[in-house]
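Quick one:
INPUT:
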């Protein structure tokens, strides 16, 4: 086995940063050499996340204190809008470094689309054009040759995995896709927010970002790409009182000659042999609890009452396959490691 690579995690004090640490500690080809935070710089990782008590980890520092000469690959788990400048500086200082970005800053290939959805112009256009969209199962070759990978959003991953292959095979109407995607609380991040208090969210469900959620832009981009024409989904995210998980219920209108069974067969064929995507038997419905804590996604297809419609359901853990696990999968690809390495944890149940 080759020597381990040295990895830095920028933004290690958030949930996705902590998940990266958890996963990488078990990766045989990785050495964590730097962890950064902003307000928590100077603290031990175990002070911020007590689950790491007794584990030898670097102390949290500022980004400016990271010695890039000692780093081979950087994970950026920073807020969107700030990451593009940070990554531009990383490449200016060390062009050979590899970066996996968990923010939204490099997911959209069209600068106008980025400005429309995020409210400001992109500050690193030359890097935006070279970034690979990091949905491994559907973009493996481009990722493997990239130095910058843009990890998709959690809602995006959950919906693109089942829908893009159906659009590519012309099995569904690209103008009639309805997605309702329910996510757990960790998707809102770790910062203190009044609307995220237990008494504000427990014992209820509510929609948010209706008609304007930013992950819609990723759906537009990847659905258009798969369909070869404009494909627009109606996307409604829901916040539900659980810690982890995303559960997307997707209603599609079938093309002439297509059936719910042929939709299921297409997904089963697309993901046959994929280590992290399981297509359940026809008519079987996945459950979020069956992917919790893992890098696995489960897909199910059920026939709707009308012969021209089918219901596709997808679920994954938003912090793993929807974020940090997929980031490790991307790292494995761009570093030439076995794709499953460090990601062998099976779902936690019950």
């Amino acid at each position: 086995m080759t020597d381990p690579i040295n990895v830095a995690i920028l933004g290690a004090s958030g949930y996705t940063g902590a998940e990266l640490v958890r996963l990488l500690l078990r990766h045989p080809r990785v050495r964590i050499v730097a962890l950064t935070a902003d307000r928590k710089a100077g603290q031990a990782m175990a002070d911020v996340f007590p689950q790491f008590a007794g584990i030898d980890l670097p102390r949290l520092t500022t980004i400016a204190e990271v010695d890039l000469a000692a780093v081979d690959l950087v994970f950026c788990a920073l807020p969107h809008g700030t990451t593009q400048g940070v990554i531009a500086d990383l490449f200016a200082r060390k062009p050979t470094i590899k970066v996996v970005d968990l923010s939204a800053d490099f997911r959209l290939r069209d600068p106008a689309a980025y400005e429309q959805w995020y409210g400001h112009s992109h500050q690193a256009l030359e890097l935006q054009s070279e970034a690979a969209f990091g949905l491994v199962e559907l973009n493996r070759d481009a990722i493997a040759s990239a130095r910058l990978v843009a990890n998709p959003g959690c809602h995006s991953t959950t919906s693109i995995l089942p829908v893009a292959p159906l659009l590519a095979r012309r099995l569904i109407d690209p103008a009639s896709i309805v997605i309702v995607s329910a996510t757990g609380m960790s998707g809102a991040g770790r910062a203190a927010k009044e609307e995220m208090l237990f008494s504000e969210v427990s014992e209820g469900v509510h929609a948010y970002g209706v008609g304007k959620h930013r992950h819609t832009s990723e759906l537009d981009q990847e659905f258009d790409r798969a369909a070869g024409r404009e494909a627009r989904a109606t996307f409604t995210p829901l916040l539900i009182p659980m810690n982890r998980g995303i559960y997307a219920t997707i209603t599609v209108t079938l093309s002439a000659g297509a059936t719910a069974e042929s939709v299921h067969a297409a997904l089963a064929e697309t993901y046959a042999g994929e280590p992290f995507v399981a297509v359940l038997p026809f008519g079987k419905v996945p459950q979020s609890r069956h992917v919790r804590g893992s890098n696995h996604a489960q897909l199910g297809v059920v026939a709707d009452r009308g012969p021209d419609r089918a219901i596709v359901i997808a679920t994954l853990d938003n912090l793993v396959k929807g974020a940090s696990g997929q980031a490790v999968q991307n790292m494995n690809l761009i570093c030439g490691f076995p794709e499953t390495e460090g990601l062998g944890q099976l779902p936690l149940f019950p």
